[in-house]
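debug: dumping io for the single-chain case to check the tokenizer round-trip. Nothing else runs in this session.
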Amino acid sequence: MTSRPHESLDPDARPQRRTFTAEFKARILDEYESVPDAAARGAILRRERLYGSHLLDWRKARDAGAAAGLTDRRQSAARAAKKAENAELSRLQRENARLQAELNKTQTALSIMGKAHALLELLSESADAVAMPNSSSPRRRRR
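debug: decoded output
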């Protein structure tokens, strides 16, 4: 049997971390604490695929008087605002890089145009100097 090490490179194949809403946490805590039987409590944990540590953390947050403590910090409004700020920052950085590149192109083009203008002036001056009539050159005169 041959194993294929690159077979599961699909990023969608990776399991996603579960997140729980504050309502779900409160509902499970209420249900768990209302059951007097340890076997029934274990059944609740198995049914919801939870660990006892989940409930310990949720209970600590609730007992600390922080209903907001039941919300997931990774999904909090502050995190969403920070994510929005980071998205805006990266957008502005990309725009800044694009504008810098455009400015460099414009400056290069202006420099080339300036040099071309100076070269044309030199050619024009030398052409004027060559085009001046010379007294030693033969001319046809009409009489």
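debug: round-trip ok. The chain has a mean pLDDT of 81.
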